[in-house]
Amino acid sequence: MQVKLNGEARELPEAMTILQLLEWLKVRRDTVAVEVNREIIPRARHGDRRLEEDDVVEVVTFVGGG
Amino acid sequence: MAEDKSAPGTAHDLLRIGQRTFRSRLFVGTGKYLSLEIMKQALDASGAQVVTVAVRRMALADRPGETLLDYIDRSRYTILPNTAGCYSADEAVRTARLGREAGLSEMVKLEVLGDERTLLPDPIETLKATEILVKEGFSVLVYTSDDPIIARKLEAAGAASVMPAGAPIGSGQGILNPNNIRIIMESAKVPIIVDAGVGTASDVVSAMELGVDGVLLNTGVAHAKDPVAMARAMKHAVEAGRLAWQAGRIPRKLYAKASSPQKDF
């Protein structure tokens, strides 16, 4: 299944939820926010929300800034 | 010794922003440091309780390594996500929402800029974004120019703090228009925090001596030759300026006035 992840086309090994995606990416979950098709998916729903073909996914976090 | 009721950084002189209170009146950014270790030491030396961060796409290609948050003790610092790099109200609102989701805090440093060359605030988009975010329950600390009229409108729109620039971002020029800051202070009911443009400790003292409630800075520390030492200097500068403002300075006079008796010798 293909999605657009942080601006790039990515082939996912299988259908997955956001939670599974973050685990697959080995991403720390405590300081990320995830948007799917411009809608923020709250952390509590990461386990329920299944990704679909061609979803546009943004995974953001904090970086240094003023 | 009698307790000093006016001492900065004590329970008697707290900074209140929305529902939160802080002892330190210095807010520091986390950008532009040579290393995260130096940043960590500088944050520590600054005594700041609020640190700003930017919200960005996570670098997914990299091996999972150390991240900024590994170097920020969240039990000690309040994370203030910013909307830096946004040039419209829509972008800034989106970034603020993402920052709230990532950080689980209602505070946001709203920054909507006009163009990349000057990095000056876009007052119209800034006001629009403030209105939206306030409705959504954010505690909005809003970066703006030193224009007293815009500052008043941002406060009326519900900003928790108005943060006029001392000078353009990263310019280190100091407080370019103290008169405007003074006019902003006259009518403001929310905390006024000078954000951006300070280059060294004396700039921070000058800002605090105007009676502003705090200073937010980043480059002045991060790009100093010794960021940790400069962070310490900024901490003292905020406290010195606060004390001097509370103490009340003497009027400026054209002519000398002797400090020692002039007769009876």
Description:
The complex is a heterodimer of chains A (66) and B (265). Chain A is mostly beta strands and 66 residues long. Chain A has one domain: Beta-grasp domain (Ubiquitin-like (UB roll), Roll). Chain A contains 1 helix and 5 strands, in the order E-E-H-E-E-E. A 5-stranded mixed β-sheet of chain A has the order 2-1-5-3-4, with no helix packed on it. The termini of chain A are far apart. Chain B contains 8 helices and 10 strands. A 5-stranded parallel β-sheet of chain B has the order 5-4-3-10-9. A 3-stranded parallel β-sheet of chain B has the order 6-7-8. Chain B has a single domain, classed as TIM Barrel. In chain B, a hairpin with a 2-residue loop joins strand 1 (15-17) and strand 2. The longest helix of chain B has 21 residues, at 227-247. With 265 residues, chain B is of the alpha/beta class. Chain B is globular, with a radius of gyration of 19 Å. Chain B has helices at 36-46, 89-103, 123-135, 148-156, 178-187, 201-209, 219-222, 227-247; strands spanning 15-17, 20-22, 26-29, 50-57, 78-81, 107-110, 139-144, 161-164, 193-195, 214-217. At the A-B interface, strand 3 and strand 5 of A face strand 4 and helix 2 of B.
Task: Report a brief summary of the structure.
The complex is a heterodimer of chains A (66) and B (265). With 66 residues, chain A is mainly β. Chain A is built from one helix and five strands.
What distinguishing features does this structure have?
heterodimer; A: 66 residues; mainly beta; Ubiquitin-like (UB roll); five-stranded mixed beta sheet; 1 helix; B: 265 residues; alpha/beta; TIM Barrel; five-stranded parallel beta sheet; three-stranded parallel beta sheet; 8 helices; 35% helix
